[in-house]
Amino acid sequence: MLAPLHAFGARYDLPAPLYLFLIGAGAVVFISFLLVLQRPVVRVQPEGEDLPPVPRTPSWPGWLMVLVTLILVAGGLFGSQSTPDNVVVTAVWLVFWIAVPISIAVFGNYWPYVSPLNVVASLVGREARLRWPRSWGYWPATILFFLFACGELVFNGVTTTPAGAAQVLLAYGILNAVMAALFGAETWLRRGEVFSVLFATWGRLGFFRFGAPGRPGFFGGLTRPFEASVSRLTFVLMLLVSVSFDGLLATPAWKNAVNQLPESLKPGAPGYTVLLLAVFVALVVVIWGLFAGFAAAVRAVGHLDEPLLQVVAGLIPSLVPIAFGYLLAHNFDYLAINGQLLIHQASDPFGSGTLNLFGTVNYEPNRNLIPTAFVWYFEIVLIIGVHIAAVVLAHGYLGRTARTESQGRRAEWPWIAAMVGYTMSSLWLLAQPIVQEGVKG
Q1: Are 117 and 243 in contact (CB under 8 A)?
Q2: In angstroms, rounded to a whole number, what is the distance separating the alpha carbons of residues 315 and 240?
Q3: Shared-domain flag, residues 185 and 283
Q4: I need a surface site. Which of 50, 119, 229, 325 has the fewest CB within 10 A?
Q5: Is 56 exposed, middle or buried (0-12, 13-18, 19+ CB in 10 A)?
Q6: 3-state SS of 216-246?
Q7: How far apart are CA 351 and CA 344, in angstroms?
Q8: What pLDDT is recorded for position 2?
Q9: Can you give the pLDDT at residue 10?
Q10: Which residues of the chain fall below pLDDT 50?
Q11: Distances in Å between the alpha carbon of 70 and those of 73, 75, 133?
Q12: Does residue 181 sit in the same domain as residue 233?
């Protein structure tokens, strides 16, 4: 039975050197830019605030999810502590942390209408007792996202056990109730509650708006810039950073580097945890610096009138499809392989050893369910596609913002350099755990 948080099938022997795939992908994105560059842009600024909707009254699906969550907490605390046999870890880290965001990015942000957190917050936070400090912005949600990402990637020795996952659910449920009681449900859910902010961000990609501003259809919510605050933009950039960090840890280069470290910094030692946290934070700083630098170049080349932070806020929506593409590509094999645990767990959800409700308790996941070659070529098509979407979105923003059409087109050149570079680097990261270059004899 599978136990690791991430699992991969057999490695795929590439028919050509990897660098040819990377150059080809970058070339396709660049050619798409040349085609998009000639498209006219309607110079109408989109309306709508960068705030997730908050239903006025809790819905019955939300109440049902409260019950399901309580059952999961109890099952995690008192059920089997075998990770493959207890559904809690799969429910939290595979279904909720990965599958739900992907579904919201496809369909739209349905989360406010099924969220158990909204139900609890609405019950205890009808009136605010304290005012939300202006300096806080989205920092509580951003810090909480960082902690959850660390729970998956850094502290997974604890959080991916049934009891650990249940304790995460319980602790966050209590925090949600306390903060909603202090600051009011609406303010907390819109600026502090991490999953409301996270799913509102992913929901901008989805086909349906579900009460959020934006045009119907895919990417319809991304024509609006994000709030031009460091906290909000850091939150969005961390969608990229968290998956890139996860991909980095799976590369042979990282594993080889770790092997060269002293024992105090190797996996299992406290120093390794500190190292991972430092690398995660460093990646956030690096990504911020890179994209802020490209945004500064865009502003300078296009002679844009908006402040730099506003330009970053206008360009960052074009990064959301890339973050989604990398999230799906990086976890595609993981969802296909470890998702099969649900077949086994459905018959005995908490590993009691006495149930076999659907006759599937002895089901063993197939690691080679999806050929690795298919996964690789799917990732190539997906990554190229989302970068092309990013090019289109940036073209629309700069066409609306620049003083003239020609200045808007000039402003796009630095950004396409960023898109081509990110296409190639993200594909390289995705390739490391699943492909190898053939050796011709």
Answers
A1: no
A2: 14
A3: no
A4: 229
A5: exposed
A6: CCCCHHHHCCCCCCHHHHHHHHHHHHHHHHH
A7: 10
A8: 47
A9: 64
A10: 1-3, 439-441
A11: 5, 9, 32
A12: no
**Which of these three, 164, 192, 223, is where a domain ends?**
223
Query: Among the three residues 223, 248, 283, which one is the final residue of a domain in this structure?
Result: 223
Output the pLDDT for position 386.
94
Note the pLDDT of residue 392.
Answer: 93
Looking at the structure, do residues 209 and 123 belong to the same domain, yes or no?
yes
Q: Is this model's pTM higher than 0.90 or not?
A: yes
283 and 338 fall within a common domain: yes
Count of domains observed in the chain: 2
Provide the domain limits for residue 384. Answer: 1-46+228-436
Q: 187-191: which pairs have CB atoms within 8 A and are 24 or more residues apart?
A: 187/128, 187/132, 188/121, 188/125, 188/132, 189/52, 189/54, 189/112, 189/117, 189/118, 189/121, 190/51, 190/52, 190/54, 191/132, 191/136, 191/137, 191/138, 191/140, 191/141
Amino acid at 385: G
Residue 441 lies in a domain: no
Any bridge partners for residue 436, and if so which? 13
Q: Which residue bears the tokens 């009808």? A: 126
Shared domain check, 254 and 398: yes
